[in-house]
Amino acid sequence: MPVDALTVVRRPRPLRLRRWGAALIVSACAGWASAPLMAQTSSSGGAAPLPSTRSVNDWLSRMHEASRYRAYTGTLVVTSGSAMSASKIWHVCDGNQQMERVEMLTGAPRTTMRRNNEVITFEPETRKAVVEKRESLGMFPDLVRTPKNVIPQFYGSREIGAQRVAGHLADMVEILPRDEFRFGYRVWSEQKSGLVVKLQTLDSRGRVLEQVAFSELQLDAPVSMDKLARLMKDTRGYEVVKPTMRKTTPQAEGWRLKETVPGFASMSCHTRDADASTPPGQAPMQWVFSDGLASVSLFVEPFDAQRHGQEGEAALGATYSVSRRVGDHWVTAVGEVPPATLQRFAQSLERIP
């Protein structure tokens, strides 16, 4: 899951480096896992479930902290069905400041540089450099923005053994949901540091929807923060684009949820490319929710018969989308959650009278 955070009110794109995104590599009990998943786990690689020595919060906190204090370089490969993408990542952090460079190795050339929440994406083919600030960095897990004590209400953990990934011995742990509103995860956490080196997103039957893994990884690599800072500032030959973004509230834009989805808290709400004369509720809006691991974005914009087709669902790997018309507006719910969860969000969104 890497550099992919859905950017405010850009049409949803299936950019799959989001959760691991530039930030993390760039989201404890027994008896709750489903039988099909337990059967698959015990038959994959011969790894038998082990007694849990860490709670789900212990595991997630360790994974989260690992990315804050380790420098590394590596090649990250994302697979989903027959689709595959790869990127080269340089990451450095001193505990307070994180910097990262992510260079796509497949598809259209693109390099993303990040310093904390400041992000600039260089697109060589268009000679554009898009500058943004992102509140959500797409980290797995997104513990900075969600109370950790909430996560055990909706997820549990189970240790299932150890395997080597990219030459590093990693603990294997499953983080699985307690209800039908979210997916589960199988995570490989490097034993010495806790860094996530491989991640699978699992559906309710334990099937792998998407996999993100390092094919090669150098821990404690000599990554220069100063050099990355210079590269980030060097926009010579590029047209610098700074999309207009305004922080707001759903209520101010005339929207609300008549029914909440358990575990998902409102994280942020923004509109983009609107001026002061635009009436409330008419500027394209993105409303973001998270349960600490999974996120959902609600995109709302005025209905346009030329651009908006039939209501329906779409899927790419672990990312699903649901679209529907609400009065004079078009609503698209996007997230790495089951389609029924997105349907509940989309059906619950309504205009404030």
TrEMBL record:
GO terms for biological process: regulation of polysaccharide biosynthetic process. GO terms for molecular function: antisigma factor binding. It is found in: Periplasm. Residues 56-231 form the MucB/RseB N-terminal domain. Keywords: Periplasm, Signal. Pfam families: MucB_RseB, MucB_RseB_C. Its main location: periplasm. GO terms for cellular component: outer membrane-bounded periplasmic space. Residues 251-350 form the MucB/RseB C-terminal domain. Belongs to the RseB family. This is Transcriptional regulator. It comes from Hydrogenophaga crocea.
